[in-house]
Amino acid sequence: MIEVKNLVKSFDDKVVLEDISVTFEKGKTNLIIGASGSGKSVLLKNIVGLFKPDSGDILYDRRDFINAHRDLKTDIRREIGMLFQGGALFDSMTVEQNIKFPLDILTKMPEDEKLDRVNFCLKRVKLENTNKQMPSEISGGMQKRVGIARAIVNSSQYLFCDEPNSGLDPITSIKIDRLLAEITEEYQITTVIVTHDMNSVMEIGEYIMFLSNSHKLWEGNSDEIMHSGVQELDEFVFANKMMRKFRDQ
Amino acid sequence: MKSLGKYLLFISSLFKNRESFKTYVKLTFEECMLVGINSIVLVGLVSLFIGAVSTLQTAFNLVNPLIPDSVVGLVVRDLTILELAPTITAIIFAGKVGSSIAGNLGTMRITEQIDALEVMGINSASYLVLPKIVGTLIMYPLLVILAGVLAISGGFLAAKFGGVVSTADYFTGLKMDFNQFTVTFALIKSVVFGFLVSSISSYMGFFTKGGALEVGQASTRAVTVSCIAILFSDFILAQLLLVR
């Protein structure tokens, strides 16, 4: 479980996140949604420690992350897996080396055990026999799946995804969404996904938090989101014709 | 001053929260190959020709019949050891390796590869930059030695085939009034220049923000600032170590 309490973050004079409090539960796919520029990615980067908040607390299973000693912070970070918007695969390494990388750096596992684990993760994301390919030789959807495999290879307790569907076709997007939901349930991890894709919201949104103009405006699940009564959220949810038709039926 | 402070903080961050020694050995070896071995052809070629041209131009300028031809060898030797080998090679090195380091780290930054390392709990600056600096500190002095040997050899070839000075006179000049400290001075300069090029280029690349355009700008800035730092430190070192 990850708890965010009264988080504030600003860049120069511009407040990007104002008094954000939220709890992301274990075994659930938690979604942070909102329009572009609403502060979703900034919130995620604060939670994983890439940005330092101005004030507020972040607790990983009751462990204070912001004020933690460097060693504890490193320990927590080593329990985190993250899928970046562009995949962020190391382009000088093969698929296998990319996935094995966290094990090489963070564990003392024997080499054959590492390879078994890599192959298991590749199988889990349905990418068997791509071990020796370079990231530039595989499609965007495959890169995202390699990114997921790398994020879970070290048995991460917390999985973060920044726009996992950006640049992907609807079918591949749904596959990625389902994969993330399956992994979350199977390994009982805390998954936090930043997205503005309504298909993802409807498909896997067990807990949804809506950000608008630096504030948390609403929280709920994919059933409740259709009847939130919050004007900004309604504008976001029913922005496209298909969703409006769905509402009107 | 703000940039200088940020640069010094960046350098100090390389030594915090490091990974295992074994990891650095492997990465440093890879960097030695990239930084050193891949620069041999360019450095060798430039040095050979600079030595040859220095011989021809020195001979051309020695019009006084009272000055012996052997002075050509002496001038080429001291010019090479004191300035051409460590400093000119450093400028070339900044152009080739410095821009490559900045471009590589800049690309890693904008494609979130550096963020990925940070999220894993790895000190990305230490993991990515320390091996580059250590690799350069190992390889650049060796490149300077190679550059010195090849420049003097280039001078010999020019003497032999250009006919401006006899090879015997050239060798006599090479051995004339040799001060061993010039070699020590060249090696000190090579260590300082190697550190400046690798650390400045890493700093420029590591803090790149934006997209492809900014990566290009970071590479250009890395070369420019490295060259200025080389020339400035060249003067300071000469003042400190050569002027009595």
TrEMBL record, chain A:
This is ABC transporter ATP-binding protein. PROSITE patterns: ABC_TRANSPORTER_1, ABC_TRANSPORTER_2. SMART domains: AAA. Keywords: ATP-binding, Nucleotide-binding, Transport. Residues 2-238 form the ABC transporter domain. SUPFAM superfamilies: P-loop containing nucleoside triphosphate hydrolases. GO terms for molecular function: ATP binding; ATP hydrolysis activity. It comes from Roseivirga echinicomitans.
Automatic annotation (TrEMBL), chain B:
Keywords: Membrane, Transmembrane, Transmembrane helix. GO terms for molecular function: phospholipid transporter activity. The chain crosses the membrane at residues 32-56, 137-159, 180-203, 223-243. It comes from the Bacteria. The keyword Cell wall biogenesis/degradation does not apply. One of its GO terms (cellular component) is ATP-binding cassette (ABC) transporter complex. This is ABC transporter permease. The lineage of its organism: Bacteria, Pseudomonadati, Bacteroidota, Cytophagia, Cytophagales.
